[in-house]
User: Fold this.
Amino acid sequence: MQDSFGRKIEYLRISLTDRCNLRCRYCTPEGGIQSSGNEEKLTTEEILRISELLASLGIRRIRLTGGEPLIRKDTEEIVGRLKSIPGLSAVSMTTNGSLLSGRVEALKKAGLDSINISLDTLNPLTFRQMTGSDRLFDVLEGIREVKDAGVPFKINCVPVLGMNEKEIEEIALIAGKEPVDVRFIELMPLGCGVDFTGLSSGEILDRLEAAFGAAEADDQRSSTEGPAGYYRFEGFAGRIGLISPVSGSFCAQCNRVRLTSDGFLKLCLRHSSGVDLRTPLRDGAAEEDLKRILEEAVMQKPASHDFWKDVKDPEEKRMVQIGG
Ligand code: SAM
Assistant:
């Protein structure tokens, strides 16, 4: 599938649920969100049907997200069934890690190719302040099990002023000690994120260079690495990634669409545009009609998120509902 700007769309993020067991303050409102009702949620069969259709149209990689994807009891089954869809080269997951422990072997057996684990702090008090939860040690145990199982993983951290920004050197040191990519993501002014201030990638790099010496840009990137720019620090076993949706928009290379847990195909994080797939699916639309709906939707993908401009149809959903 190509959109109207010639971008090849081959990456799908599926939000398996809009529920999350954490309340990260820049992501989820304090009292949580009004979760969609059971009737509104896509069933496992519907998620798989849409994935098959999109794979037949050129989607090559799927990332499961949420809410928290591991809140679902059947995440392993979904991974296993997605892996048998012809044309898909990778199925991965983004998780807060707090429910990983005890499930890693089953996810690996189902064929999960890699995991991104969100880790904003190593301090239990800051963790409580940022997420409203005491589950930091569950997250760290989940990471340990992923490592022991040999499932490829990355750590993602969103530095937020007045919360965890003092810890970026300590979090970067995870890549100092282990052959793992630690990625810092600029806080996006979306949903609850508008109430906080993040650090730019430039500021993060300056801080890390002050602590660890000059960084060397790593050009050895594979095509599946997404929008991160990677750096190597002398003596580090792993790499540091900087993801700059705000200071360095990568919209011109955007190859992704998102499926929400209630069956809406979203074309851009910032815009509400997209198409409801649940209704035609439940109305028994023919395969050809569904494919046409998908292809026409992709042609509506906006050129850019335009974070700093007024857009006509700004997205009002929270990140927890979209999946990041
Ligand atoms: N619960 C899972 C998790 O925590 O990874 C998946 C969903 S969460 C919405 C996915 C990612 O979005 C997390 O890494 C989170 O830090 C990030 N995120 C949420 N709001 C954000 C914002 N305003 N700017 C940048 N990243 C954000």
